[in-house]
């Protein structure tokens, strides 16, 4: 039986294209982080503190988003980083965190203190660092969409700007 070429899809277009996963908005991720935070039964049993390295644990992963628990002993904090194009949100569930967010032109940094219940959400190009500058441990819940694949790290330069340092894959 002859093939009806007109009915054959071009080789570059699969008959069943994978559905595009919609990327959740920062506002939606903030609601996700808040709803996890409101359920201590989901995160409190996972809380650990690491003196050598900050403790983190993935609480949930779906095709659309993931939720992480992070803990922070006094003095612990992140480097300046982005989220590899993912949007995100986080909320403090214990203690106090300080966030500095960055933009590409000077003045580069803006610092804010985040107490229990505070929520921050951000789009895919956001650059920040988060740390515990207080005297008691802190715990936070973070949501990202899509699932984190890479993160880039930056250093502050003398001119009050930030410069890309490296990009690393995100592992559990
Ligand atoms: Fe972050």
Explain how this protein is built.
- 9% of the residues lie in helices and 39% in strands.
- It has 172 residues and is mostly beta strands.
- The protein has a five-stranded antiparallel β-sheet with strand order 1-2-9-4-7, with helices on one face.
- A hairpin with a 5-residue loop joins strand 10 and strand 11.
- It is globular, with a radius of gyration of 20 Å.
- Fe (ii) ion binds next to loops.
Q: Indicate the CATH topology.
A: Jelly Rolls
Tally the structural domains.
1
Estimate the global geometry from the Cα principal axes.
Answer: globular
Secondary structure tally, helices: 2
User: In percent, how much strand structure appears in the residues?
Assistant: 35-45%
């Amino acid at each position: 039986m002859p093939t009806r070429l007109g009915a054959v899809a071009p080789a570059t277009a699969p008959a069943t294209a994978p559905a595009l996963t919609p990327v959740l908005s920062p506002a939606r991720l903030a609601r996700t982080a808040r709803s996890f935070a409101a359920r201590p039964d989901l995160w409190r049993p996972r809380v650990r503190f690491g003196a050598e390295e900050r403790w983190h644990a993935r609480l949930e992963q779906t095709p659309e988003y993931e939720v992480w628990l992070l803990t922070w002993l006094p003095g612990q904090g992140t480097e300046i980083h982005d989220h590899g194009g993912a949007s995100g949100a986080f909320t403090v569930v214990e203690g106090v965190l300080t966030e500095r967010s960055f933009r590409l032109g000077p003045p580069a940094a803006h610092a804010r203190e985040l107490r229990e219940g505070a929520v921050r959400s951000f789009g895919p190009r956001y650059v920040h660092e988060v740390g515990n500058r207080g005297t008691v441990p802190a715990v936070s819940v973070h949501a990202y969409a899509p699932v984190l694949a890479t993160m880039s790290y930056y250093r502050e330069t003398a001119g009050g700007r930030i410069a890309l340092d490296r990009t690393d894959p995100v592992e559990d």
